[in-house]
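In this section we walk through a basic example: taking a raw amino acid sequence and producing a predicted 3D structure, encoded as discrete structure tokens. The instruction is simple. Fold the sequence below.
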Amino acid sequence: MNADYALLSADDAEQAAADWLARLDREGLLSGPVDVDALCDARHDFDVWVNAEMGHRVAFLRAATAWSRAERLAALKTHDAIPRRSILQRPVVQMLAAAACIAMAILVVIPLGLFEGASGQPAPLHYQTARGEMKTLTLEDGSVLTLNTDTSVDVLFSKDERQVALIEGEVFFDVAKAPERPFLIDAGEGQVRVLGTSFGIERRQGVVEVAVSEGTVWVGSAAHADTSESILTPGMIGYASANGVIVETSDVAAVDQRLLWREGRLRFDDTPLRDVAAEFNRYNTIQLVVTDEATGDIEIGGTFRLDNVEAFARLANDGLGLDVSHAPGRIELSSE
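The resulting token sequence is shown next.
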């Protein structure tokens, strides 16, 4: 964390992000898709703030996704117009919706209903995983799907198309090449068309995020088809919604770390403990509970087994000096 900026709470970071959006817009720096790295080059003080800690960058990306010509005032006035609510209830987060893929894929935001066809159409095959479970499926065309924890998909193949509906959760796709038989993925708010490649898509409470590890991706928004589109290459992360497209440039190593769940591991880099706990809780019946804000602000780095929450709790006690208490179905972490 940069010493020039004190650690902000999630609410304060979002308000600061909204203030930065207003400032950058006044200076004419938001005329196209939001590019964080380009903004860092243009404004040194923004570079210092957004890279001071991961929470700042996440807050800015969330706010920028809601930043469209029609929604700018709402994005800036979130904290003034309504009482503060949980992160998933805030309008900025509720407006997020994205879907993308790797290797010449096209994303268009469309209504739901990928499987709505003529009467008599075969019923899709349904697959799902429970909390902490992972499953690998080999489809009839040779494509391989790896389902992460708490994931649900429907699969329906015809002679002309291959269709998958991601109902919830996260899937890593390794799609067999068949240009004459497109591979379509319905991720709730949009549709992805793939000719053959490998990529991961996560859908969680209406938000879909894609990180590119190989290939090239074209991402566009149906609501702003003529003004908002981006080409993603390896190491880039794209977020798309009805409000437009934003791009974050990372690196391939970071993208690969994003997919470590396939190896049973989780990677954190200066991640607030509250977010670390939430990620562990996706995989374990024993839930980590952070009891106070100061403890939740502690930054965690390292790679951990995703199914060994007890070992992480011992590390929190021995390495961080946190108080750890056990109760049925939960482990409470506190610095008080």
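Looking at the output, two observations stand out. The chain has a mean pLDDT of 74. The chain has three domains: 10-94, 105-255, 264-334. In the next section we compare this with other chains.
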